[in-house]
Amino acid sequence: MQDIITGFNSLIEAVKNIKELYDMNNYVEVKKGLANLELDLAEMKSRLAEQINENTKLKSKIRKLQAVKSEEMVFKNNVYYDGDGGGPYCTACYDGKHKKIRLVDNPLDPEFWGDKMCPVCEEIYKTK
Ligand SMILES: [Zn+2]
């Protein structure tokens, strides 16, 4: 990226030089300067296209890594949480059927039985 910024700076400098040559009525040098400028612009266009291509690949890679992280389950306080911090999820449902079932508050004496329960398999968990 720094390479491209440096390239644009030299293009701006080349335009300034051509403008000075034009002001001095040095049309032969203006024509040479414009020919060089055209080549340099083509080179910059190519470098920019490479950079855009690389950016697209990196964005795709980031999206894949985020998806993997989101699927990653972390076991903590007897339950699972996903990579995005979602959860808690039922360990019985995830380990047995690979389903992410979000636990709900246990309405039955949470102090004795546990504070969370699975709405699918009704497993009760103490997460605190
Ligand atoms: Zn369950």
The mean pLDDT is 93
* Sheet with most strands: 3 strands, antiparallel
Largest sheet strand order: 3-4-5
Span between termini: 49 Å
Bound molecules: zinc ion
Question: What is the succession of H and E elements?
Answer: HHEEHEHEE
Q: How many strand segments?
A: 5
Structural category is: mainly alpha
Description of the structure:
The protein has 128 residues and is mainly alpha-helical. It folds into two domains: 69 residues; 54 residues, no CATH class. It is 61% helix and 11% strand. The protein contains four helices and five strands. The model has no long low-confidence stretch (mean pLDDT 93). The structure holds zinc ion. Zinc ion (ZN) binds next to helix 3.
For this entry, give a set of tags.
128 residues; 2 domains; two-stranded antiparallel sheet; 4 helices; 5 strands; rod-shaped
In short:
The protein has helices spanning 2-23, 27-71, 91-97, 110-113; strands at residues 73-76, 79-82, 104-105, 116-117, 124-125. The chain is mostly helical and 128 residues long.
Q: What's the structural blueprint in terms of helices and strands?
A:
Elements: H1 2-23, H2 27-71, E1 73-76, E2 79-82, H3 91-97, E3 104-105, H4 110-113, E4 116-117, E5 124-125
Antiparallel strand pairs: 1-2, 3-4, 4-5
Helix pairs in contact: 1-2
